[in-house]
């Protein structure tokens, strides 16, 4: 019986490929550089196909040995039609029927989805979200996004654009956001905003969030305060979604979440204090478990759940 | 074939009962006063049973002629177990197994749910939400709530507490809310808050929102401004949920929505301006169609969909 899946995680600068088994273990990996290929879709697709074949050879397998190929991309993806509507920070991709293009070349089932959705699927089935039916998996990085699992299924939204937790406003008035809104959650906790804030506080243009983490661990009061303020925004940003969706679990991942242990108490306290009793009493907030591999591992879940639904 | 359903809509002061056909038409009605019965659950249940029998007699029918009885209650309802966990503003109801109590006496299927969920089900199948799969039905009254239909199904949340749109904060700091949070949507647009605000503006303790509506229709500038300010809060409150859930439709009902036509343009403009492009381009915002009957009519949907699921 076929049990492997190929996962592809397309990022702004590189593309990760992995051979994954049915338990969500990444058995083998390959990488590709995204940048130069961004303007030439066909070249990128050809490179993907060639790299998949190499990955198969690495493992003494043939493409026909896999259940399917799951691709996560940073942008708006029409999961049902398998079309890349648009990509964030990668130009030249508009309404590309990536699913059928890859399927024709590979002759195995291909499914494509938004990268944060794949992260949520991965954490749900093989990471911090195992066993839960109603959860939100939040990515706290340059962008702030989320994948939403409700009633035991990924919720994608009417136009596959659901999950934009980072663009729930925290205030009626607030800073401008690159989504053309203002006062968005992301304007307060996105990593570039935080890095700029840290540069001001510590009067150091080159400071990184990792440095602020190290400073806080070392007892620097302003650094501790920096993470507490960030945590307060995160907590405030979660109250609305906790009250609205009454989830059992919130999983927090992404780059900024590396400082989760410095933020955990404040986040939990604010949600407990500010969210409604029923909702706050049952929601658990935890750090993501799969790190940078969540998207690749999520491809396994995407393929198996999609094939299951087709069977029905 | 059985085609009737009995709907029961429990409010703080009175209880509406209706005989409803499969097209969502209320064929016959009865009413009960809630107040005196609130402390004596058994008496209330007996009255309900007696009134149902009268309603049957009114129509020359027998209880066995109905598919089931659907009850909407203002509070936290465990739909799956059929238990009233607690009621808002009606004391003495804690963990009451209302479904089984009624079922024993009536010998037909009974389902119970939160009243706003029933309103959402009614509007979805027979009102403003017909044909949509992803929609939010918002009630704008003393309380601000919502019923959420996602992927063609009512989403109730892990603890049956989902939909608390009125308690999504609009600001990180803001007025205290009776949910023990602060800055909640409801603190800005709940009808008691609005009435108090109107009393101040118009220096009239007894002014009602209907009066402010009439004043605005008559061209009173402060009254027009009053509704525009309210609409701005409503619009701001919807941006987050539009970005997060990417619904196709938002239905606005409840008492305050009687002024919907005075608020519509500002609400739509703010959502268009502030929400993300994909989400705002596809969301329609409309006024509810079924008025005060939505909850009763929703009982038909509750019964038919619940019986359908049991069959599967």
Outline of this structure?
Chain A has 312 residues and is of the alpha/beta class. Chain A has a five-stranded mixed beta sheet, sandwiched between helices. In chain A, a hairpin with a 2-residue loop joins strand 10 and strand 11 (153-155).
Structure report:
2 copies of one chain form a homodimer. With 312 residues, the first copy, chain A, is α/β, with parallel strands linked by helices. Chain A has 2 domains: 4-119 and 293-311, Nucleotidyltransferase, domain 5; 131-288, ATPase, nucleotide binding domain (Nucleotidyltransferase, domain 5), CATH 3.30.420. Helices cover 41% and strands 23% of the residues of chain A. Chain A contains 10 helices and 13 strands. Chain A has helices at residues 41-58, 98-106, 115-126, 185-189, 191-201, 209-217, 221-245, 260-274, 277-282, 294-311; strands at residues 4-10, 14-20, 26-33, 66-73, 75-78, 83-87, 94-96, 110-114, 135-140, 144-150, 153-155, 249-253, 284-287. Chain A has a 5-stranded mixed β-sheet with strand order 3-2-1-4-8, with helices on both faces. Chain A has a 5-stranded mixed β-sheet with strand order 11-10-9-12-13, with helices on both faces. A 3-stranded antiparallel β-sheet of chain A has the order 5-6-7, with helices on one face. In chain A, a hairpin with a 6-residue loop joins strand 6 (83-87) and strand 7. In chain A, helix 7 (221-245) packs across helix 8 (260-274). Chain A is globular. The two termini of chain A are 19 Å apart. The model of chain A has no long low-confidence stretch (mean pLDDT 95). The interface between A and B is large, with 48 and 47 residues.
